[in-house]
Amino acid sequence: MLYDKIDSFMRDIDRYPLAAQLVSEIYRDNKKFLTLNVNKYVRTIVNFGQEAPLESARKGMYMRLLETFCRMDGALVRPN
Q: In total, how many domains does the chain have?
């Protein structure tokens, strides 16, 4: 059910910081979502992160969210 809703959550992460935390908690270390193609989500997170000022809390939030999609149980999901 949540698998199909990630587009809605990702659309809201820039306007609502709690949406980013929600996505992070749902997808963190969740093996069911390893099959999800995250390329467009990673691109979205990186774009929002680049636009955020260096000192802002949003930049840190985006980096933590990016880590959620790139790591599983502390190990890289796939090397880039």
A: 1
